[in-house]
Task: structure prediction
Amino acid sequence: MTQNSEKVLNFLKEHFGQEFNKKEISDALGIPFASVTGSMNNLIAKKYAVTTRKETIEDSPATETRKAKTHDVLYHTLTEAGLAYDPVVEEAEKQAKKEADKAARAAERAAKKAAKEAAKAAEGF
Result:
């Protein structure tokens, strides 16, 4: 998890139960809007945050020849799972799994090599 993602997560934990849009989070933390967007997308994908409300804001009114220009503002909040989420533990688990997989591959290669050598010895080479 990136530093900016951790900042977003910690901000939402500190303000658990409150709704924020990405711009509000970006302004509060002083990090780029794109970083907040990526962090929120990641948290939502993992079910640690949800979009709670959508608001359509009119930028310019409609005229006879043009439709009104609007944009949607999405508000997000952390879930109970997000409140309990600890990225340090997740990183440690990933690292442990990576090391276990590496050890398993090494053991498999050693077993194949030993079997190959035993087959050669049995043939008399």
